[in-house]
Write a structure and sequence with these properties.
The structure holds 2 protein chains of 2 kinds. Chain A is an all-alpha fold. Chain A has helices at 10-19, 28-36, 46-84. Chain B has one domain (3-169). The N and C termini of chain B lie far apart (50 Å). Classes of the chains: A mainly alpha, B mainly alpha.
Amino acid sequence: MQERNDVKSINDIESMLTGADFSKETDLKGRLREKLGIAPVKETSYKDLEQKLSAKRDSIHRASRADSKVNNKEMTEDKVKSFGGMKR
Amino acid sequence: MSMSEKADFATVYEENFKYVYNFVYMKVLHKETAEDLTEDTFIKALDAYDRYDPAVSGVRTWLCTIARNTVINHQTSAAKRHEEMTDELPEPDTAENNPVEEHIEFNELNREVEDILKELSREERELLSMRYAMDLQVKDIAEILGINPKAATERIRRLLEKCRKIHAKVAF
């Protein structure tokens, strides 16, 4: 037996016990799910989230461009009206 | 939470598989046995889920009770088989007598924790696995074990100190 250099505190031991995950060493979860006849709960993947975010961004962008066109048109008409009297 | 607000079993399974497997593994320290007993636990849980009342206990406490009984039954049967085969009383439960599988691709943390657990008795491992693998509250652990919460807290504190000493002396 040899004394370790990295002597742990009680808190370290608690963290170790909490952090250890032996379930990563087995593929039982998938096999047992089939045996129990339960469908996996659908998890939203990062790719799904990216696609949703991108679609949302596009729709905001389109709405913003449409607003901007309307505003520009209104502004142009206002300008024509305001400058109209000055035309010679 | 009322019976009508109960999560479906698939969700219970997905959310608790890791806790149950780790609890069982930390008790038996043997991969195939842990897999068999985890499977038995969830089959029993599925069968009994209609009768589970969330108002009586949290789902993890409920699963822990099933897993604990499953492991105890397994160990009792194993001891009986051993007795029949040898026609002798089973040897006392020491760390050396517990089935411990050789390390297979464990990550460093798992290996360190397993090295500590191998030095503990089944009862000691049970207490730690309830608290840290199942993440149960001390009051729930005390209820399952039928002991005073203060006694449970003190046992856990002493066990952590023992683990700390074991970890400091683990052979290289």
